[in-house]
Amino acid sequence: MDIDHCKRFNDTCGHKAGDDLVGLTISIGMTNLRDHSFNAEVLIEFADQAMHRAKQSGRNRTVIWSEFVNAQPVPG
Question: What is the pTM of this model?
């Protein structure tokens, strides 16, 4: 999970201001144990890919990793 545009805000205004900020959108990437290896590194990589897909697709959304979803072009 990643708060959208938080790095930019923290770099500009400082981490304390970032901690106090509310109302930012959140991009969430998820994967499913049932469909994948129980290898933690693989699961984290798939969730990270899904999170980046959520950001590329407009932010403020949840994407669940799948071979089909990650093979599709990013809308835009």
Answer: 0.68
